[in-house]
């Protein structure tokens, strides 16, 4: 536990000392919020009010995408936090950790915990935009979603840890893999638009994407889904189904928990082989 805490503490100190990283990570989520929220909100809300009947007047498109924007921030921060492993390898810090008595599992858990904490902090900072966007999430729902944000950040950081443990340069393969990986995970998650009418082959990728379940859970916790009509919920993809069966919040949380455990194990094995 001391080793895990030391690695976690170091990642947090690096985060708070790097102000450029702190503010720079908000650029893309805020741009997406402005572009999609400002550009499509009128169209989406008019479509709902005009075509989908009773209950659609309560639909707010910005309220719909905000949990997705927070999930996007968690994904990007968690994945990019794994880049510190490559930097640590280049500067020799990782060698010092690997020759210490700390187990490979503790190293992976420590890095994952640090990345999850950093991503959660950045996601919570986005909550400061809620009053300025005219949204009305309850304090209780925001408090309930924070522990889940940490779990989702941990699961997503495991993906970054796996690739970072195998790649030597931040200028080469890692950035390429991140660009190929991150953008599809965002657009195929339901963060910005409904995903319930995807082609069959693409729908398989959507259902395997952990961000899909993360976005769905965050929307169900933060948005008052029951105030929306069943037609609105179906049209906006708020009734996520797998094999024709609607999945519950508990099942989605268990899936993400299992995903996090799996990638901790895989990253640990990767550390052993890469630094044997």
TrEMBL record:
It is a multi-pass membrane protein. It holds the Pfam family ABC2_membrane. Keywords: Cell membrane, Membrane, Transmembrane, Transmembrane helix, Transport. The chain crosses the membrane at residues 20-44, 64-86, 107-133, 139-164, 176-195, 253-271. InterPro entries: ABC2_TM, ABC2_TM_bact-type, ABC_2_transport, Nod_factor_ABC_transporter. The keyword Heme does not apply. Residues 20-274 form the ABC transmembrane type-2 domain. One of its GO terms (cellular component) is ATP-binding cassette (ABC) transporter complex. It is found in: Cell membrane; Membrane. Its main location: membrane. The keyword Phosphoprotein does not apply. One of its GO terms (molecular function) is ABC-type transporter activity. Belongs to the ABC-2 integral membrane protein family. This is Transport permease protein. It comes from Gracilibacillus boraciitolerans JCM 21714.
